[in-house]
Specification:
alpha+beta
Length: 129
């Protein structure tokens, strides 16, 4: 399932956090002070940077988005929000393909592509299908 509406679970939180409604600007800036992810994680998050509970990842259309993904007991959720929180997306997968490193990586890449398309696909920048 992919959702870009404000009704998705992480949509309002991401919007409020990055839109400056949950934390003072100084605290949000601290969370967004990032370092590159380590070499092992680069396979999953190419050019990703990690802050305090937030991951910054590049978008194919330029710029970047903020994320904090997770999962448990066979499901995975990947989300993203634009820098100002004006656009958010949540990808929820009911099956975690953890039977091999290659399948885990393929699933992460597919979900990341969905997030990227949803965040980049705006009226002035259609991504296609």
């Amino acid at each position: 399932m992919t959702s870009t509406s404000p009704s998705s679970t992480t949509g309002p939180i991401g919007s409020a956090l990055l839109g400056g409604k949950l934390l003072p600007r100084a605290r949000l800036t601290e969370r967004q002070d990032t370092v590159p992810v380590n070499q092992d994680i680069q396979a999953f998050w190419p050019h990703g940077r990690y802050g305090l509970g937030l991951v910054e990842r590049p978008l194919s259309c330029g710029g970047s988005y903020w994320s904090h993904e997770g999962g448990n007991g066979g499901y995975i959720t990947l989300n993203g929000a634009t820098d100002n929180g004006s656009r958010t997306v949540t990808v929820s997968m009911s099956t975690a393909l953890g039977d091999s490193p290659d399948n885990t990586l393929r699933q992460e890449q597919a979900a990341s592509n969905l997030v990227g398309h949803a965040l980049c696909d705006t009226p002035g920048n259609r991504q296609g299908t």
